[in-house]
Write a structure and sequence with these properties.
Length: 249
């Protein structure tokens, strides 16, 4: 197979890279009002997942998700945004060990929630409180996946800092790749954790999630409650199991 063939690893990698760059641009532009950052990151997760499974086009998927998840994502950001601002403000203005310990704990909790909450909002229908609860239940119970995503973020930040010091010319490329690349790298980890819940929703609706892979389960999922998220990942249904909602995007 020629490396220029559309199905070659080279061309698939090139397509994923261009999608990641475009996602970075879309998220940056739609985050400019700051208050829309939550909706932008949620839309980025949705568009990245669909890009990986070859469903639709990045731009149209992004803006459909941005519109449909805007309200809930914005409410979630009104939780995460002020907490992040408060942590940074206290860290810069208060210099005492008595403050650093609880501040570090709050920062860790914030980071765990941030890694998961936008993917949950993009993947499942739920209340804002339910999405927030699921993000922490799964983020802590699947701590290996959480640490893997945090490690990717830390490596990216370290590369940016190193480039700033030793090779400033590389910053433009790093910022262009940016968060879109991280979301694309996070997506396979997220989907591996989510798949038991997606399959359970597909089975409950009478669909066969194995028929055509992840895309087959797409129509069966977007509604989960906190009690559906078994910490062991078994996706056992709760009492009064939720009705799967068809994803019309």
């Amino acid at each position: 197979m020629s490396f220029l063939s559309p199905d070659s690893r080279f061309m698939r990698g090139l397509e994923s890279t261009t999608d990641a760059i475009w996602l970075t641009i879309l998220m940056a532009v739609t985050s400019l009002p700051v208050v829309t950052l939550g909706a932008a990151v949620t839309a980025g997760h949705d568009a990245a997942r669909r890009s990986i499974i070859g469903q639709g086009h990045v731009t149209s998927n992004y803006f459909r998700a941005f519109r449909s998840d805007f309200m809930k994502s914005t409410l979630l950001w009104l939780v995460f945004g002020p907490v992040a601002a408060a942590v940074v403000l206290v860290a810069l203005t208060v210099h005492t060990t008595l403050v650093y310990v609880p501040l570090f704990a709050v920062g860790i909790l914030w980071l765990v929630g941030f890694e998961w909450v936008w993917a949950f909002q993009a993947r499942f229908d739920n209340t804002v409180g339910g999405t927030l609860a699921n993000a922490y239940v799964v983020g802590i119970s699947h701590i290996g996946a959480t640490l893997a995503m945090i490690a990717m973020d830390v490596v990216y930040v370290a590369i940016v800092i190193a480039s700033w010091v030793y090779l400033p010319q590389g910053l433009y490329l790093l910022f262009l790749l940016g968060y879109g690349t991280l979301v694309m790298l996070h997506t396979p980890i997220l989907e591996r954790v989510f798949m038991p819940y997606v399959r359970k929703a597909a089975e409950a609706s009478g669909k066969d999630p194995d028929a055509t892979g992840p895309a087959a389960a797409e129509d069966a999922t977007r509604e989960m409650t906190a009690s559906d998220m078994d910490p062991m990942g078994s996706a056992e249904p709760a009492a009064g199991s939720p009705t799967p909602k068809k994803d019309a995007r």
